## 1
Amino acid sequence: MLPGWLRLCLCALILCGSVGASAAPGAVVRLQVDGVIGPASADYLVRGMAKAVDEGAQLVLIEIDTPGGLDTSMRAIIKAILASPIPVASYVAPGGARAASAGTYILYASHVAAMAPGTNLGAATPVAIGMPGTPSKPPGEGKGEAGKDGAAEQSPTDAMTAKQVNDAAAYIRGLATMRGRNAEWAEQAVREAVSLSAEEALEQKVIDYLATDLADLLRQLDGKTLQAAGVDQTLAIAGAPLISHAPDWRTRLLAVITNPSVALILMMIGVYGLFFEFSNPGSGVGGVLGGISLILALYALQLLPVNYAGVALILLGIAFIAAEAFLPSFGVLGIGGVVAFVFGALILIDTDVPGFGIPLALIVTLALTSTGLILAILGMAVKARRRQQVAGDSGLVGSLVAVAAVQAEDPCSGWVALQGERWQVQGREPLRPGQRVRVTARQGVQLQVSAVDEPPPQGGH
């Protein structure tokens, strides 16, 4: 008979094993993308497809609802789809969802493209890279007078936009040709940012299926033959288990730290933590917290499309604010640091993709926090300047102290205890133990003193 506590442990292990069980061979693995496509969603989908292959699944189903995302993350997902040895079906659902921008590319790259009624796709024009808020112009717009006459005169911004649009158009045309879908509309979605409803997309052969729900899509796909990695595969998904893989802790952590606002806050915590640790060594809390935060921030920034001039301005601004505590600049370094930090935060993220901007309110809040720190430092400096000095020569002269001992051979000379040290003192009149004297000057290692109270009466009783 097993003890009660051991049986409980075994039951817990069995329960954990059943919850974390992998997909059965021949299952359909379901992955979901809801929101902006970034490093976290790319990591989730790429690892999810690899896990489905290891588990022997026969189909990966990606449910999509996204306004778009980063180009690097989108291409990582598409590379995984094209290299997948099992078919991948992308399904825009539920009703009201969309596969805009990066979502359209992923839909075109998938072996199966499907949409639910009431959904839409398109608007796949690449967002201009540069100062946040800079509008993207289609090629041909923004030319001067010479451009109207056919002369080739384009600004650098127009040339860069044309390169991005042409590259994106060629990319999506290649995906459309590979999957046998409408390449003309795909290029139009890139160049003119047009969109289609689910019904129109099916009519124009942009997608393969229109399904009311997930069960309807699986019924339509049952028995279909698809080619994945050059091999024809026939789906037998009637009655096959549907396994949903939710984002794990790694994906959730990556989603948090790759938020540009969180990355900026982590950078501030990291630098200030190290600053306080170096200025007050010994506690270790600032160094540990600052080091971890700074490493996480740098890891997040290398995954994001950052402007390194913005990173440099932020670090320079924080360095100026920290230097204000040590250098007598009377606020000049601190104010300059706040200005550098604000400009750096404004240009930090080098894309206009929705969901990857830094709110102005956060920038202002962090700037005001740094300004408050500067004012606190200046306030402490002013108080310290006005406070009477209690150490050094200035702290010695004027001090009141009691005579500890008197030399027998010279009654005008003796010793006192002052500032934790033993000093030899010299008076103009004879001294006595316990007498209160005032320090009037310092001569090397000897202090000059004068009596504060009256000398004792001579003789008598």
## 2
Amino acid sequence: MGDAGILRGMENVRSERVLVAVAACLLAAGIALGLMYGGAGHGVAMVLRWLGVVVLMVFAWRRRSVTPWIFVAMVAGAEVGFDAPAVGVGLRVFSDIFLRLIKTIVAPLILATLVTGIAGHGDLKGVGRMGVKSLVYFEVVTTLALVVGLVAINISKAGVGLHVPEVVSSGEVVTAPPPTHWQDFLLHVFPENIAKSVAEGQILQVAVFAVFFGIALATLSEEKRAPVLRLCESLSEVMFKFTNVVMYFAPIGVGAAMAYTVGHMGLGVLVNLGKLLLTIYGALVAFGLLVLLPIALLFKVPVKRFLVAVAEPATIAFATSTSEAALPRAMESMEALGVPRRIVSFVIPAGYSFNLDGSTLYLAAASIFVAQAAGVHLSLGEQLLMMGTLMLTSKGVAGVPRATLVVLLATAATFRLPTEPIFVILGIDALADMARTTVNVVGNCLASVVVAKWEGQFGAEPVSEVVLEGMAE
């Protein structure tokens, strides 16, 4: 019986691989036919691509899991946006619904898990040690991200020779903010009203409140601490269960987000400023291979298991261009991988303000691109000074779309660079945002595993049944 089960499993794997291969061939043929014959072959090309999508749906149905449906939804959404742009743009409402549901989870989840992690163990010295290690790791990795972005844009020189018109028409209006000072960011870290912080989705402020609340709770007697601790433990379990329920809607939300992006921007945007886009994507890939992978190997992270665990939150981040949308699933995935909840609930939320590797790299490349496009020569010293400024200002980048543009405008104002090239970047920012947000999520997930390894706690605690249930769906 056991051998028969193994044989059936092997047959299923082979058939699934065949389905994926057939789908890939149909999609490739449809794309190639569309490129070769243009309008004349548009109908046949479209049919081939949709046949590929249908085969992928069969594959996802056989797997009976949410994760493959998310991948299929991305492909189907891109196809809808390309074939029927008006329909794709109209589907944005489903993406917004998904994001709203996710946002209702984030603050209570962080609050409950952090308080439980700190007060439940009562090891305040351990919390402080973990915080110091996390900040050291964040600073080292984000600095390396700046270096990679700086080197990439200086090699490609994507902005050199770009003609920038004086006025760039754009559907979006971005106003230049005043220069960001470190005092403003430091003040912004601390909440003045926890209800306001929760309502506005200020993740770092909620985390800071949770840390102080957890420390205060840990110092109380067992009699007074136990009821509040049980409430927080129950709330964290409920929010993870809430995440599992919302994830059933994820394929619809992700597909709608892709349909809107392609329908709104169009594939022609790949031609406009393509060199900068390739530079950013190439730099992000290089960062993953030259920085994140060696770090994972250095700390003996199980790379294959980590990639499987991070696949779903990374996909959500790519399609929605929002780190926040992937946060609950990222925390759940890392706990299922073996990172204790108290480490997950501390490192990942903190990383959303201090360890946005993709956004930091993008800011480095985009800042030098602006100078190149404006014909402003920056010496190595000036470029390093700009990177030092970005080390501070990038820490305040929120996990939401287009927040990097605010920092970019502030940096341009600080170094007296023109804003016109920034408005040109708006044309490809949506596509760049997908990649940098994915790297943000992957980098923060890796940070939680690294800190757990550093603390000697990886795989040391049993995983909640609710979390295991969510990963099995």
## 3
Amino acid sequence: MTTLDAARVPHPAPVRATRAHADRMVRIASTALVGGALLLVTSWWASDGGVTALGSRATALTSVGQWSGLVASVLLLVQVLLMARVPLVEGAWGQDRLVHLHRWVGFSSFTLMLAHVVLVTWGYAAGEVRQAPAMLWQLVLDSPGMPLAAAGTLALVMVVVTSLRAARRRLRYESWHLMHLYAYLGVALALPHQLWTGASFTSSPGRTLFWWTAWGATAVAVLVWRVALPLFRTLRHELVVAAVVHEAPDVVSVHLVGRDLHRMRVAPGQYFNWRFLDREGWTRANPYSLSAAPDGRSLRVTVKHAGDGSSAAARLEPGSRVAVEGPYGRLTPRVRTRRRVALIGAGVGITPLRALAEGLEYAPGEAVLLHRWTSEPLLAGELAHLAATRGLQVLDLPGRRRHPDSWLGEAPDADDTALLHHWVPDLADRDVWVCGPGPWADAVRRSCLALGVPARRVHVESFGW
């Protein structure tokens, strides 16, 4: 392992930051929109006497419960929108960041929703704890929409419980994904009672318009981008399996062909949610990244056996029909702001980076790929070909991780950050793409930041759920 040549090589095509600036504006605008909605509903709560009601125990409980319900309603809609695959939002934020925000917003909205139920019930029971269960039962039976809200709450409880880390370790990805879809049902059932009876929702035409518009826009976003568009793309492109190639004992590449693939607008580094229709369990989608740059005629994914869905990929037959959702992901050339780039991947995480190494524009010496592997390198022959024909500099990092806090395998006796600087001295002047398991990718990101790479130029996509 040697220090990489840091000499700059001129390139005829300058990198433009226009897309990065546009994405930053989208992030600012979407953050401001959510913040403005939260401030608006809080101002409505205050104008309705929410602050003055804090004087006595019973009214304070009810008032705080009403406020938590308003905020929870906004966050529930935001939670759904974060995963609605809206192209403008997806492209600006990136899927990894959206998943992180989705998880944080989800737990926050769920906590506030439970606080709303408990506090309002307690307040209606005149602050008497012993009367609260009977009051809750009365509210469920007598208030319009409350039975639906109770069912929606139970659905959300199931989603939150199965999203806890301890629960996810005991579930297959396919089972977890199926249960997670009940979040849509939970939100759909939990909110209507507020739209029908809540004073803060119905006391003026402006408020009613705001809430119905927010709820309707969220529903339309899900139906368009999670249902209609995937169905349209599946029917339009008619993807089928062309071949299945064994790359390693537990890794296969699936080659696919279809109709008008040049119109799919897919970029190297992106992934799809795949449903292979001619196999058992086809209703459950699996996310796989492209492992080759799209050429308009075919697509390829490389899959490691890690569960029921991925293991079944090895048994696919040519001609098997395929349904897709996507393309998704921001680990693409669109985030590039520098001529010089670094690609750092581990295990099957090398697959989208291999596609990037093929699809990016660079001159010899401008691109380096650090390939972390344990038993044998994946797609080593293809990476060697890119090194020979494109000038990609490939640095192999073999062996098991030397300790839990390190992202390196066999390496000299020095800390990770010092070694990364030794191998890529000009890392701070590059865009860095990272892909691999979550904890490993986080460790790589910390090393990059410690070497002065701005956070906006470290583009991470981790494998996990």
## 4
Amino acid sequence: MAILGAIIKSAIDLRGAVVSEPSPKEAQEKVLQQLLQKAKNTAFGSHYDFEAILNSTSPTETFAATIPYHDYNKIKDEWWHKVIEGEKDITWPEVPSYFALSSGTTGKTSKRIPVTDDMIEAIRNTGIKQVGALSNFELPTDFFEKEIMMLGSSTDLNKRGSFLEGEISGISASNIPFWFQGYYKPGEDIAKIDNWDERVRSIAKKANEWDIGALSGIPSWIELMLKEVIAYNNLEHIHEIWPNLQVYTSGGVAFQPYEKSFNLLLGHPITVIDTYLASEGFIAFQNRPETTAMKLVTDNGIYFEFVPFEPKYIKEDGSLTEDAPSITIDEVEENKDYVLIISTVSGAWRYIIGDTISFTNKKRAEIIITGRTKFFLNVVGSQLSVNKMETALREVEQEFDIEVPEFTLSAVKIDGEFYHSWYLGTESKIESQKIAQYLDKCLKDANKNYNVARSKSLKGICVNTVSPNIFYEWNGKNKKKGGQVKMARVMKEEKFKEWEAFVKDNS
């Protein structure tokens, strides 16, 4: 393994030195052309005359003017229901091999997102790009000899007709290259266990047999797994059993809210690398250690457009108004929120993925995820994005020396007045009113719209503190533990009442 590690390290360093990439603008124009060319004879391509778009003087402008925006319900009702029924050549040539099941953060019935062979190849190619980027992180040669713990959903995919279905992390793990299988943990047998608690217990029992050098998965579930391993093996921290753990590849949500509680589980600092793998594709990954922002993958099967994230363009369900303007990657501005629109080799066309992003470096095409279109709290004009909420909570953590890895909130009426009602996942015993006052101050300082709302119709905020475990049990009750499951940061009134009743019954 030592010789193989040295070979891999040398190959990565060499690739980092010789690989050059086109500009994001050039790469995206080529990707759009490839998408249109391959799908022009599908039912979707014929309906919207992809041939004419390809032959127009400006395919990017004609594409945007011709194809409407699609959220999941729209594209499913008009097109993907035929794909799900097994018809071929609908929005992409032939039929997909897989469907990624995604309930997102709503807890409703799972969406079925087509995952074609072209998308599997694109995800694999982006994974290789990410491995190549490790040359920027100055990792020692022996890191490449260690095993990698990939904690996602079950790889025991469901058979439905000629298709296989599961969460994207399970689909990806079931398609790992043969040469990687010797490094991959927890291994095929444990990865197939569908029950989250049983899978984690199995990991804890086998943990002392493995030499884990890297972790990969959603922060909240990785934390729970590490706690189980630590508790089962009677440890102070995870490095007592995995001393060579050096890298954590985070994904699904921003890592920063979990950073403080995550670090408490370690014996020493490790390198954290953010990634952006969604059910619809591998969108971005952190390319260098100087920033926590992620590099958009502009040359590999996904064409991106961006809609300014402004209340006038956002419907209550998180979809876009028909007149919402889109721009291309060369037109974006740094430090401005955009709704992300994608068209992909899985036959998603001008698809509203539901995330909002901001460019931190336009030239490098580096972004951060700033929230969800559905989690934009704009009652009485407060205009609070998830990013603003999380930034304020980091200040709260620092002020009170506490950890708040989870939260949710809703706008509620109390005695005829509007309040923001927060639930913070923390083991802290600090008085909630003190936290509320400081959190309110941080939000006022960071967001002028919130400050204006607080001087008018928004009466104040109230804070309740509960154990972080309540959030994980809520997810287990409403959806499923582990995998791609994420907590809803903002809830509508009806769902918030369910949440409060759940908290009352389980506290």
